[in-house]
Amino acid sequence: NIYTTMAQVWKWPWEYVVNFQFINVIGVFIGVFSSAILLLKNVSSKVIFIFGFLILAINAHLISRLFDLDVDTFRVGQTVFLQGIGQGWLFTPLVMYILSAVPPENSANASMLGASIRFWFTNIGFAFSQNVMYYFQEKNYDTLKSSIDITRPVVADEVMNKEILYEQNHINAVIDLLVQNDLMQSVYAQAN
After folding, report:
1. Backbone torsions φ then ψ of 107, nearest 5 degrees
2. 51 pLDDT band (50/70/90 cuts)?
3. Is 118 in contact with 95 (CB distance < 8 Å)?
4. Residue 89 in contact with residue 34, Cβ under 8 Å?
5. 94-101 contacts: CB < 8 A, separation 24 or more?
Protein backbone atom coordinates (compact mmCIF):
# COMPACT_ATOMS: atom_id res chain seq x y z
CA ASN A 1 0.00 0.00 0.00
CA ILE A 2 1.54 3.28 -1.08
CA TYR A 3 -0.12 5.15 1.80
CA THR A 4 1.60 2.92 4.35
CA THR A 5 4.89 3.48 2.51
CA MET A 6 4.34 7.23 2.73
CA ALA A 7 3.87 7.05 6.48
CA GLN A 8 6.32 4.35 7.50
CA VAL A 9 9.14 4.42 4.94
CA TRP A 10 9.18 8.03 3.80
CA LYS A 11 8.09 9.21 7.28
CA TRP A 12 5.54 11.67 5.93
CA PRO A 13 3.08 13.06 8.49
CA TRP A 14 -0.42 11.58 8.35
CA GLU A 15 -2.09 14.85 7.41
CA TYR A 16 0.14 14.85 4.32
CA VAL A 17 -0.72 11.24 3.48
CA VAL A 18 -4.45 11.93 3.83
CA ASN A 19 -4.19 14.69 1.23
CA PHE A 20 -2.86 12.17 -1.28
CA GLN A 21 -5.94 10.02 -0.73
CA PHE A 22 -8.09 12.92 -1.79
CA ILE A 23 -6.05 13.13 -5.01
CA ASN A 24 -6.88 9.44 -5.57
CA VAL A 25 -10.58 10.12 -4.94
CA ILE A 26 -10.55 12.86 -7.60
CA GLY A 27 -8.98 10.37 -10.04
CA VAL A 28 -11.70 7.82 -9.22
CA PHE A 29 -14.44 10.38 -9.87
CA ILE A 30 -12.89 11.24 -13.24
CA GLY A 31 -12.45 7.55 -14.12
CA VAL A 32 -16.00 6.61 -13.17
CA PHE A 33 -17.63 9.51 -14.97
CA SER A 34 -15.47 9.27 -18.11
CA SER A 35 -16.02 5.51 -18.41
CA ALA A 36 -19.75 5.99 -17.82
CA ILE A 37 -19.83 8.57 -20.64
CA LEU A 38 -18.02 6.12 -22.93
CA LEU A 39 -20.51 3.39 -22.03
CA LEU A 40 -23.39 5.74 -22.79
CA LYS A 41 -21.77 6.43 -26.21
CA ASN A 42 -21.87 2.66 -26.87
CA VAL A 43 -18.10 2.14 -26.60
CA SER A 44 -17.55 -1.55 -25.94
CA SER A 45 -17.12 -2.30 -22.27
CA LYS A 46 -14.28 -4.65 -23.22
CA VAL A 47 -12.35 -1.69 -24.67
CA ILE A 48 -12.91 0.35 -21.51
CA PHE A 49 -11.95 -2.69 -19.45
CA ILE A 50 -8.70 -3.15 -21.43
CA PHE A 51 -7.79 0.51 -21.05
CA GLY A 52 -8.53 0.29 -17.32
CA PHE A 53 -6.10 -2.63 -17.00
CA LEU A 54 -3.57 -0.77 -19.12
CA ILE A 55 -3.81 2.34 -16.93
CA LEU A 56 -3.39 0.23 -13.77
CA ALA A 57 -0.44 -1.63 -15.32
CA ILE A 58 1.26 1.67 -16.15
CA ASN A 59 0.45 2.87 -12.65
CA ALA A 60 1.99 -0.26 -11.09
CA HIS A 61 5.17 0.39 -13.06
CA LEU A 62 5.23 4.05 -11.99
CA ILE A 63 4.63 3.14 -8.35
CA SER A 64 7.48 0.61 -8.43
CA ARG A 65 9.80 3.40 -9.56
CA LEU A 66 8.77 5.59 -6.61
CA PHE A 67 10.31 3.45 -3.90
CA ASP A 68 13.24 5.71 -3.22
CA LEU A 69 13.94 7.64 -0.04
CA ASP A 70 14.17 10.93 -1.94
CA VAL A 71 10.83 10.76 -3.75
CA ASP A 72 9.19 13.70 -5.49
CA THR A 73 5.71 14.44 -4.13
CA PHE A 74 4.46 15.50 -7.55
CA ARG A 75 5.30 12.04 -8.94
CA VAL A 76 3.46 10.40 -6.05
CA GLY A 77 0.43 12.60 -6.69
CA GLN A 78 0.47 11.64 -10.37
CA THR A 79 0.52 7.93 -9.59
CA VAL A 80 -2.33 7.99 -7.06
CA PHE A 81 -4.37 10.16 -9.46
CA LEU A 82 -3.68 7.75 -12.33
CA GLN A 83 -4.53 4.82 -10.07
CA GLY A 84 -7.92 6.40 -9.35
CA ILE A 85 -8.64 6.86 -13.05
CA GLY A 86 -7.63 3.26 -13.76
CA GLN A 87 -9.87 1.97 -10.98
CA GLY A 88 -12.78 3.94 -12.38
CA TRP A 89 -12.16 2.66 -15.92
CA LEU A 90 -11.71 -0.92 -14.79
CA PHE A 91 -14.50 -1.33 -12.28
CA THR A 92 -17.28 0.64 -13.96
CA PRO A 93 -17.70 -1.90 -16.80
CA LEU A 94 -17.12 -4.70 -14.31
CA VAL A 95 -20.03 -3.46 -12.23
CA MET A 96 -22.09 -3.31 -15.44
CA TYR A 97 -21.32 -6.99 -16.10
CA ILE A 98 -22.14 -7.97 -12.56
CA LEU A 99 -25.44 -6.10 -12.54
CA SER A 100 -26.53 -7.28 -15.98
CA ALA A 101 -28.82 -9.88 -14.41
CA VAL A 102 -31.03 -7.11 -13.02
CA PRO A 103 -34.34 -6.67 -14.88
CA PRO A 104 -33.95 -4.18 -17.78
CA GLU A 105 -36.22 -1.55 -16.25
CA ASN A 106 -33.98 -1.38 -13.16
CA SER A 107 -30.56 -1.84 -14.77
CA ALA A 108 -29.67 1.85 -15.12
CA ASN A 109 -30.42 2.60 -11.48
CA ALA A 110 -28.75 -0.61 -10.29
CA SER A 111 -25.60 0.17 -12.31
CA MET A 112 -25.31 3.69 -10.96
CA LEU A 113 -25.96 2.47 -7.43
CA GLY A 114 -23.42 -0.34 -7.74
CA ALA A 115 -20.72 1.94 -9.13
CA SER A 116 -21.44 4.60 -6.52
CA ILE A 117 -21.27 2.18 -3.64
CA ARG A 118 -18.13 0.47 -4.93
CA PHE A 119 -16.07 3.57 -5.62
CA TRP A 120 -17.34 6.37 -3.52
CA PHE A 121 -17.76 4.50 -0.28
CA THR A 122 -14.52 2.56 -0.64
CA ASN A 123 -12.50 5.72 -1.21
CA ILE A 124 -14.49 7.74 1.28
CA GLY A 125 -14.02 4.88 3.75
CA PHE A 126 -10.25 4.87 3.21
CA ALA A 127 -10.08 8.65 3.56
CA PHE A 128 -12.26 8.51 6.69
CA SER A 129 -10.22 5.71 8.27
CA GLN A 130 -6.96 7.54 7.56
CA ASN A 131 -8.36 10.70 9.14
CA VAL A 132 -9.54 8.75 12.19
CA MET A 133 -6.12 7.10 12.52
CA TYR A 134 -4.45 10.50 12.24
CA TYR A 135 -6.77 12.01 14.85
CA PHE A 136 -6.15 9.23 17.39
CA GLN A 137 -2.43 9.18 16.69
CA GLU A 138 -2.23 12.92 17.33
CA LYS A 139 -4.37 12.57 20.46
CA ASN A 140 -2.11 9.78 21.72
CA TYR A 141 0.98 11.86 20.86
CA ASP A 142 -0.38 14.89 22.73
CA THR A 143 -1.20 12.73 25.76
CA LEU A 144 2.26 11.15 25.79
CA LYS A 145 3.95 14.52 25.24
CA SER A 146 2.07 16.12 28.12
CA SER A 147 3.07 13.30 30.46
CA ILE A 148 6.85 13.78 30.02
CA ASP A 149 8.18 14.45 33.49
CA ILE A 150 11.84 15.44 33.64
CA THR A 151 12.01 14.41 37.30
CA ARG A 152 11.36 10.76 36.44
CA PRO A 153 14.65 8.82 36.48
CA VAL A 154 14.10 7.24 33.05
CA VAL A 155 13.52 10.62 31.40
CA ALA A 156 16.34 12.30 33.34
CA ASP A 157 18.77 9.56 32.27
CA GLU A 158 17.70 9.90 28.63
CA VAL A 159 18.15 13.68 28.74
CA MET A 160 21.55 13.36 30.41
CA ASN A 161 22.76 10.78 27.85
CA LYS A 162 21.62 12.98 24.96
CA GLU A 163 23.29 16.06 26.47
CA ILE A 164 26.57 14.16 26.86
CA LEU A 165 26.30 13.01 23.26
CA TYR A 166 25.68 16.52 21.91
CA GLU A 167 27.95 18.60 24.16
CA GLN A 168 31.04 17.57 22.22
CA ASN A 169 29.96 19.42 19.07
CA HIS A 170 27.31 21.98 20.03
CA ILE A 171 26.69 24.99 22.28
CA ASN A 172 24.19 24.79 25.17
CA ALA A 173 21.30 26.49 23.34
CA VAL A 174 21.60 24.06 20.45
CA ILE A 175 22.01 21.08 22.80
CA ASP A 176 18.68 21.90 24.48
CA LEU A 177 16.91 22.05 21.11
CA LEU A 178 18.49 18.79 19.93
CA VAL A 179 17.57 16.97 23.14
CA GLN A 180 14.02 18.30 22.99
CA ASN A 181 13.75 17.24 19.35
CA ASP A 182 15.02 13.74 20.18
CA LEU A 183 12.52 13.41 23.02
CA MET A 184 9.65 14.49 20.79
CA GLN A 185 10.74 12.04 18.07
CA SER A 186 10.81 9.23 20.65
CA VAL A 187 7.34 10.18 21.86
CA TYR A 188 6.06 10.40 18.28
CA ALA A 189 7.49 6.98 17.46
CA GLN A 190 5.86 5.56 20.58
CA ALA A 191 2.53 7.18 19.66
CA ASN A 192 2.53 5.33 16.36
Report:
1. -65, -40
2. very high
3. yes
4. yes
5. 94/49, 96/39, 96/45, 97/45
